[in-house]
Amino acid sequence: MLKLIGPFKEIITLSGASQKGTLGDSNLDIIKNGGVIIEDEKILKVGNFEDLRSEANTIEEVEGDYILLPGLIDCHTHLVWGGTRARDYTLRMSGESYEKILEQGGGIFDSVEKTRKASADELREGLIKRANRHLNDGVTTIEVKSGYGLNVENELKVLNVVKNAKADVEADLIPTCLAAHVCPKEFKDKKEFLTYLEKELLPQLLVKGLANRVDIFVEPSAFPMEIAKEYMLAAKNLGFDLTIHADQFHTGGSQIAVELGAKSADHLEASTDTEVDLLAKSDTVAVALPGASIGLGMQFTPARKLLDAGASVAISTDWNPGSAPMGDLLVQAAILGIYEKLSSAEIFSGITFRAAKALGLDDRGKIAAGMKADLIAFPVDDYREILYNQGKVKPDLVWKNGKQVKHV
Ligand code: NIG
Ligand code: FE
Fold first, then answer.
1. How many other CB atoms are there within 10 angstroms of residue 41's CB atom?
2. Domain 3-71+365-406 maps to which CATH number in 2.60.120.10, 2.30.40.10, 2.40.10.10, 3.40.710.10?
3. From ligand 2's centre to the CA of 292, what distance in Å?
4. Which of 318, 319, 326, 332, when mutated, tests ligand 1's pocket best, judged by the most ligand atoms within 8 Å of its CB?
5. pLDDT under 50: residue ranges of the chain
6. Is there a contact between 31 and 46 (Cβ–Cβ < 8 Å)?
7. Is the CB of 82 inside a 6 Å radius of any atom of ligand 1?
8. 107: Cβ below 6 Å to ligand 1?
9. Does residue 108 line the site of ligand 1, with CB under 6 A?
10. How, if at all, do strands 139-145 and 30-39 pair?
11. Confidence at residue 10, expressed as pLDDT on a 0 to 100 scale
12. Is the distance from the beta carbon of residue 7 to the nearest atom of ligand 1 less than 6 Å?
């Protein structure tokens, strides 16, 4: 069955845009008055709507002016948690630092306590609510980290919640094990904790199909470089893809990410020219997390410098109860864009195919033949209106795997 959807005033295909480095508006590869032929879950053909009419079995006509983009991809979230961190946020607004709150046993530890106490059903409900809000905003692929369990039992509970929620969420959920988020209070020695994860938890994840990606928070207050590198090397040898919470407050994590060939290095607010250069020369995607900068009132990831140096830059929400409670990808990408002076093509690529690369996926994020038919249509008549409205204009229409999941 070949289904034609359209006509769209403009289709922002991003089809020829490069994986790395700077992009300009010509890289948007816009098709005017376009249509998309979908076969099952994939895009078969993109072109002029009228020209495609005769090639389709059915036509789903869209009424009004719409701009079509690939479904958005959020490649870094912590969507499963219990409780709230409104108290932390209030403390931070009055000047307390994130690291100090953590050192005093609050912050991430607070979410760990509440997540351990929560039942799988409660966690599932929260995850489904957040993932569906994201889908409604046009996010069709969502990475989800564990990391508020911090022991075998609770990390498995959380990753099982992600696996089981897939039946109730139309967006794709990509699980990542972040058991090495911080060292739980019951372990006095960080290295001992990482060895416990390596021996007792990681092998189970592969057998049970719960995650094939491993993350770690590399920071003196979480896991210092030397022991973090050993753990990540062990994870790599077990067959996991790697991603790293890197250079958020201190440099170091991005170096490990590049050395071990991680899919992505995320945060990078503290990265200097040395780290920018390292990342630019590598295949590791640099992931900017403006939601964390906004939530902590700190500087943004140097996205402009990274792109100019030749890196691949993705943009993600880091949606979590602590540092990044907003969880609005388009708003945050638009804000990062105006502060860091990014082109529309750099911003759209950062929340589509470059974010897909950070997840090791090459089957989505562009509107081109063979790609997944994950598509979103904005009720505007010029693509510039989308970022100009700073993310407040959301898509009216959303297709996931070729099926329309949001209507007007
Ligand atoms: O990516 N920096 C470490 N981890 C998360 C925050 C988690 C939390 O504060 O609960 C982040 O910002
Ligand atoms: Fe994070």
1. 14
2. 2.30.40.10
3. 8
4. 318
5. none
6. yes
7. no
8. yes
9. yes
10. unpaired
11. 98
12. no
User: Taking Cα atoms as reference points, which of 351, 400, 397 lies closest to residue 66?
Assistant: 397
For ligand 1, atom 8, name the residue with the nearest CA. Answer: 322
Q: Whose CA is nearest to atom 12 of ligand 1?
A: 323
Per-residue pLDDT at 309: 99
pLDDT at 173: 98
Residues of the chain with CATH 2.30.40.10: 3-71+365-406
Cβ of 147 below 6 Å from ligand 1:
no
pLDDT of residue 253: 98
Which one of the ligands is nearest to 219 CA?
Answer: 1
Q: What angle do CA 252, 254, 258 make, to 5 degrees?
A: 125
Average pLDDT over the chain reads 98
Direct distance between the N- and C-terminal alpha carbons of the chain, in angstroms, rounded to an integer: 24
pTM summary value: 0.98
SS3 276: helix
pLDDT of residue 316: 99
pLDDT digits (tens, 9 = 90+) for 139-152: 999 999 999 999 99
**Among 258, 259, 257, 265, which residue's Cα sits nearest to residue 285?**
265
